[in-house]
Fold this sequence. Notes:
Blueprint: E1 2-3, E2 52-55, H1 58-66, H2 70-75, H3 78-82, H4 96-104, H5 106-110, E3 115-124, E4 136-143, H6 148-151, E5 158-163, H7 173-189, E6 192-196, E7 201-205, E8 207-213, H8 216-223
Parallel strand pairs: 3-8
Antiparallel strand pairs: 1-2, 2-5, 3-4, 4-5, 6-7
The chain binds zinc ion (ZN).
The site of zinc ion has 7 residues, from loops.
Amino acid sequence: MIHACPNDCILYRNEFKEMHNCPRCGVSRYKVKDDDECSSDGSTKKGPLAKVLWYLSIIQRFKSSLFANLDDAKDLTWHANGRNYDGMLCHPVDSSQWKKINSHYPEFDKEARNLRLGLTNDGMNLYGSLSTQHNSWFVLLVIYNLPPWLCMKRKYKMLSMMTLGPRQPGNDIDVYLSPLIEDLTKLWDKRVIVLDGYRNETFKLCVMLFCTINDFPTDGNLSGYNVKGHCACPIYEEDTS
Ligand SMILES: [Zn+2]
């Protein structure tokens, strides 16, 4: 559980960990009422948290649940060893993007256990008709090493973060994604030693963000591209008719 500024400016971690008020907008970390007392340093008394990010660390789950399981560890190399290629497109492994990545990063391709992830995120109203404005935000990871009959199963889709409304983070999604980006950067740059339960050996795991799956407004939030109005098409840009 990581505390967040209710205006989505920062997460209270690293250099902001001990602060009571947001250094950007000055709003309290806790829910405050008008008559709440302020202490001598200007911070308000502790109450319920104003906003929280739930981050479920991915590295530990790769280590202790995914590769530690014999069957899962075997299935994670399906894309390289286990499939019968029949000339049909049935999985991202058949895509030109997969092959292009292999030619760009031959070191990554050499180890079939290295993971390729899809990141999908969207908002969701948990309260149905009780509150039409409430919007919680979820980020899921899909593991494309697995065969097509497993990679979209609920068991293998990893919830990596969620924020519980009331507003969606919009362009400030980068603030909430920062713990996940840190873990992904570590898994790409430094790699992590993992025990492979199926082969009973350790290896250095490298992980790649293979693709993102989202609707057009969220694509704008993630990329920073303006997806509304003039020049809204990110492919044609200035030539959009
Ligand atoms: Zn703030």
